[in-house]
Structures are given as structure tokens and as C-alpha cells.
């Protein structure tokens, strides 16, 4: 690895030359009372709320409110249709199909690989170590002059653990491409977010979401935090109205409830520890990876048979037993106390154990 970051050198040539689409609402600033610029239906919507006007293409009000919560300037925030949109934009902006490559560190979130395949970008896998940490030597060996992105999920999915912060910083300092730190589960962790370090690392992109701790998965709103230069690139190539007005309205209201979300986070973490301790007492459970997320990875006997048994009881978990380094494991999301009790009872029933 070497460290000589130059954003312009990373960008694809066609993106450098791209003249972005200019929406009707991009062409004037301020307030207006008569809007006859966007070919909308001026008579309204066949719904109790008016959705006949196009939404704010840059979601200024949502970003301002998020800025206060996250402690990140609004200019350093990108909002997308889930984090998946930001992931796709990273490939489209910085990776030339059939030429460039990225580094993935499995086991990890599957969309990094799917997006690479969609965009015809080669990916090089450097497995995590057996204790689910970064293999710095392996990553250094995998990097070449065409490596543009390194994806790091921390807390990691599906393992649940946080990756060593100093290892991530080592990559940030020594790699001249973009380092994408996916913090979808950061709210459940004691580890600090990398959002406080944006000014220190110009090649850092942080992904977060409102789908987990904020309980807004159905709205599909993801966040990316990066330098103003990188955010400008995202805004240049994103669809003009990528976040609909209904989503913006609901999110603006939801963001007023920080105390409620913090209370849920505390309860979920407490339930996570309780669930882990209870399952650890079962003889057929070999190992539970310490988690900083809202799920646990459990290594146990007969994982596929247990998975099928749980499905028959109407309990759906994630079978990760065929994933490299997660052999024999199920990933269990932490539910409500009642849901967790139902899960534990079913596991005890399957193994013929006694729940004391």
C-alpha cells in the first residue's frame, strides 16, 4: 500500500466530462408562488397529501436535520435509495468496467460483490482472519495500480464484530484509493463512528442507514458521508429526484424522535446480551461471536436442520452455514423480548434441551 490520494486521478474520464442533468428546480433559487417549469399537474394529487410537485433533488431540509444529529456538515452528506445506491454510484464514478478492481474482505455484506458484477468491475477477495479482523498483509498484496475501492463493513455483517480501528486507519493512510467504511450497525456499537474523522482522511467514505436503529427500513434511505468533492461527484451522477417527497416528509418527522431511538438501542443491546447468554448455555451451541450489531452469529450443531425447523414454526433467521469462515452458523437478529423468548424456546425444543 502507498498513500498519495488524488480524487481527480480516481475518477473515470467520462465522469470528469459528464454534464449532469439539470432538473427544473435546479435552475432557480429562492421561493416561488407560480411553478410552471416542470410540467407537473397543477391541480394536485388524487390523495390526501399533495404530491404533484417534484421533491427537493438535494433534500436540503433532511440533510440539515441530519447534520445536527450526526455532527457532520450538510455539504458532506449524500442521501440515497438505501446505502445500495451509494455503493453503486461508487462503482460507476470511480471504476472503469473491465479495467479497474476493488478489494472485498469476506465474510461481508453481499451487495459489494453484486454491484461489482453489475458494473463489470473485478473484485479481489482478502478473507478476514479467523477472528474476523482485517488481513493487512493480504490486502497490501492484493492492491495494484487499478485498485480503486476497498470496502470495509464495521460492525461487520454477518459476523457482528467491529474491526480494529487502527487497522482501518492504516489502510486510510497508506491506500491512494477510496476506503468505504460501512457503518450500518454503528448505533449498536460502543466504537466511535468514523464521521468525526472526515477532515483527516480525504479518501474516506462512510455509509450509514436509517433502516436499522431508526426502524425505517421500508423507506429505503441510506446516507453517505464524505468530502464535499466526493459528495459533488455523487450528486452529479445520481438520478435527479432520487429521494421521493413522501420519504423526505416521513424522515423529517422521524428525526425529531432521537430519544425514542436511543431508548430502543439500549433495549436492543440489552436483549442482545441476554439472548447470547441464554443460547450459550445450550450444549449444541459451539460459539457466539461477540457482537456490536443488532444480531448475533451463532455456530451450532445441525444449522440447516435447525433453520428448517424454525421456518416450520414461523421463525425466520438467516442461514450463513455455507459462507466461508461462517461454517455451521446462523445469523439471528435481536427481536423484541417476546420474539427472542419464542426463538429460544424453539431452539431448546429442536435440541431436546431443557430451558431453565
In short:
The modification N6-(pyridoxal phosphate)lysine is found at residue 212. Pathway: Amino-acid biosynthesis; L-histidine biosynthesis; L-histidine from 5-phospho-alpha-D-ribose 1-diphosphate: step 7/9; Lipid metabolism. The protein folds into two domains: 7-256, Aspartate Aminotransferase, domain 2; 259-351, Aspartate Aminotransferase, domain 1, CATH 3.90.1150.10.
Q: Explain this structure to me?
A:
By secondary structure, the chain is α/β, with parallel strands linked by helices. It has 12 helices and 11 strands. The longest helix is centred in the last third of the chain and has 23 residues. The protein is globular. The model has no long low-confidence stretch (mean pLDDT 96).
